[in-house]
Amino acid sequence: MPIKMIDSNGTSQLNQQANPELTVSVKEVTVGTKLITDDLYNLLEILPAEIRLAVEQHPLKSTLIEVVLDLGRRPEARFPGKAEYLSEQPVSREDLNYCISRVGHFSGDNRAGIEQTLHRISAIRNRAGEIIGLTCRVGRAIFGTIGMIRDLVETGKSILMLGRPGVGKTTVLREIARVLADELGKRVVIIDTSNEIAGDGDIPHPAIGRARRMQVARPELQHQVMIEAVENHTPEVIVIDEIGTELEASAARTIAERGVQLVGTAHGNRIENLIKNPTLSDLVGGIQAVTLGDEEARRRGSQKTVLERKAPPTFEIAVEMLERERWVVHESTADTVDSLLRGRQPSLQVRTVNDAGEVKITRELPTNPISTHQPQSSPAWKPTGWRASGQMTPVSANKPEVFTEKQSFEQLLDASFQQQDAFKSDFGFAENEFMPGPNGEDLPLHIYPYGISRHQLDQVIDVLKLPVVLTKDLDGADAVLALRSHVKNHSKLRQISKARHIPIHTIKASTVAEITHGLQRMLHIDVGEVLDLPDLRLFTKNGSNDEIEALEEARLAVEQIVIPKGQPVELLPRSATVRKMQHELVEHYRLRSSSFGDEPNRRLRIYPA
């Protein structure tokens, strides 16, 4: 990466009185399209002469991250990817005292700074409270570092920056504050708990532009200062670094609900880390255990107690800073959290920037596992009636998985994140084998249903383990599945689909059989594979023994009499609900049936083709 040195005074000299033999300290560096200001000279001034000279003469000093001084150990300089000793002499107590006397006051979080710079000096104390170690971290103002997310900053939505320590969250926060204040003309207030964003001293560092800075007397008071900023200084934007306590998360929610844009950071590589962190989970909406009804649990194909998002997220957008030049953007934190809690991987937007400052946006499609959870059925039971004759093969009843109320919140959370093997179905989709969809797209196939029963669609997809995901967003759909009568009367749907090149597949009626055939056609699955042995769970409502027995009666009548012998068959009397299921099963075989007789002896008659 080309590096261009810039210094308005050519080669600026160090303080000659401090050490006349030392030479230049670079003030500004331009890397690609970014302007970096580090004020390295000010940090070097607090170091003992021998250590200062070693750093000044080091060829990698422009990339220095921090200098570590521990009592009785050799001084160490840390650079990206490596660390080097600066002297063979161990650090003495006099060396530490020399540094301590030249920095500002150490606050309650054992941090100090150098006035009007961004450098941070952190202390390690022994049990008696004496300082026995120092971490002298270089603070750099990097202008132009938010090019990857500038469009998000301008939306006015609250943004949460995530990343491991040292990835540059505070640097990005400082630049966002400057852009919002100077270039977008907004009233910006920075809550600077450790004076890390705007530097030490009463006068903030120029890197924050016109933004105002509120200092915090003690770290544990940060949440109070956040509320004070809103009540006293009428900000449009509040910038917060390192939200780390439940009180601060609660204060952030209060601020967001007052219509103020929030820009903050939190430690954690991914959103999953926040969801699993009970202290900070409120930033992404909070998590609660919910007990579902039987019908809803069956529709979802899940256990009855699940985890769901408690409220709208405090931060509408989340950015995961995986590396300095590679960020993952979640444009809707709510959608991402909902997907993760349901065991699905969200669609990820990855933004990278090259040496020339060009931003590249790509989307990583989720390897969405297709749920293989089977609906719960009744306990084991003995065959009766036709079933006892030996001519029929009983449908196996899966033993339900038992979930007790004693399951902990953590167990539920772990269960939500367990991803099942993708693309393993009865139709030969092997693990990690991506089969092309109807138009060449990768599976799973995202389908937008229109005018079709969502419950029946979920049932067909779940039972047959089809590589299909239902979506409520037409923009993200690969195809539309709709009732033929609805499409004829909905010109707008046809126009939108045509404009976006989304094919529309139609079915005659919203029945299990029609839906099954429609999905099979869309996936190019041979219908003959399932006509011989349909899965009776497709046609049940609650999976009871009576329903399964009635459906098996109809199946055997079709397969043993109507089709091979060409003779009509009358079934046993059933309720209206069960007869409807039998009608749908007969329709699956593309045969005709009708109900006759009076209640309670009304029954089904099946006719040959």
Summarize the structure in words.
- Residues 368-379 have a biased composition (Polar residues).
- Residues 545-609 form the R3H domain.
- This is R3H domain-containing nucleic acid-binding protein.
- This protein has 609 residues and is an alpha/beta fold.
- The chain is 28% helix and 22% strand.
- The chain has 18 helices and 28 strands.
- A nine-stranded mixed beta sheet has the order 13-12-14-15-11-18-19-20-21, sandwiched between helices. Strands 6-5-4-9-8-7 form a six-stranded antiparallel beta sheet, with no helix packed on it.
- A hairpin with a 2-residue loop joins strand 2 and strand 3 (34-37).
- Helix 15 (512-522) runs parallel beside helix 18 (576-588) and helix 17 packs across helix 18.
- The longest helix is centred in the C-terminal third of the chain and has 21 residues, at 545-565.
- The radius of gyration is 33 Å and the shape is elongated.
- The protein starts with a strand and ends with a strand.
- The relative contact order is 0.06.
- Mean pLDDT is 78; it is low at 1-29, 368-407, 419-440 and 527-533.
